[in-house]
Structure prediction request, 145 residues.
Amino acid sequence: MPTVYLGGRLEGRTYEECIAERNKARKLLEEQGIKVIDPLRGKEYLAGKTLSRNEKPGGMDIAEIIARDKYDLKRSDSLLILTGDDVSDGTWLEFGYARYKLDIPVVMVAPSRIGKHGWSNYEATYIARDLNHAVNWIVNYFFAE
Prediction:
């Protein structure tokens, strides 16, 4: 079963905002038979909070969080960045790891980047104007039989 890792900015956004965005992506992808890996899984204790890199889930440090994210990316066939117009350091690290270490496609939802010059436009596999277009490309181009 094809697998997509959901990336994108978390810091400075509410847990509810991030989960709503990720649940929408999950629903669209799973309806097409695509498995989703979400790094926010198991972090329900963040409900009602604005997310911060200083939040240490269960006492974990950033190296442990990054190790799990890298493990998840290794098990994925593609990275879908949900906030391509407003990326974080962590999102850029996911981008670089997926693209240059794992050589898997990176799809960005980033309407303001379309048609502009820059390394992300060259290096991203596909830049979509919205989530529906990103999922459509993943289903009909990348995972097409």
In short: The first helix runs from residue 15 to 30. The domain at 3-142 is CATH 3.40.50.450 (Rossmann fold). The two ends are 12 Å apart (CA to CA). The longest strand covers residues 3-7.
